[in-house]
Amino acid sequence: MKADVALESSEAIDQLHQRPGFLVRRANQIMASCFADAMADLKITTTQYGALVIIEANGSIDQVSLARHLRLDRSTTGLAIMNLEREGLITRDQHPHDKRRRVVKLTRRGRAVLQKAHTRGETSRAQAMAIFTDREKQQFLKLIRKFVSAWDAHCPGEK
User: Is residue 43 classed as helix, strand or coil in its secondary structure?
Assistant: First the structure.
């Protein structure tokens, strides 16, 4: 009887470990852990890194647009911005034409930290993806982009 229960339990666990949601969440945990290790002394999270990249690409950007680019809600983005500002990596000012909006920009320190983060992020990503051949990497990324793009198109309110 106990063997039957253990077998059923083992089969249930095996089934769980084959579910796409479980695998995607686990892959995210692995990538986030590699990233966190690489950025430990910079104290940059994946969300903060994404925000810094988008701010740098735009020169300056309002918080609502930043949230949209990050595919995050305004409150989560606001928290990331608050922490980046506290660390002196960005400045936050009123929009020159709309006093209700806030615009964020990188500081000199923010640019320097982002340059270090770029290098470390690339190293971290290369280490995590090293298990794949070049062809497998391309295929893996192609499938993830396809999945995300389809759902972004399906759920336009989350953009």
Answer: coil
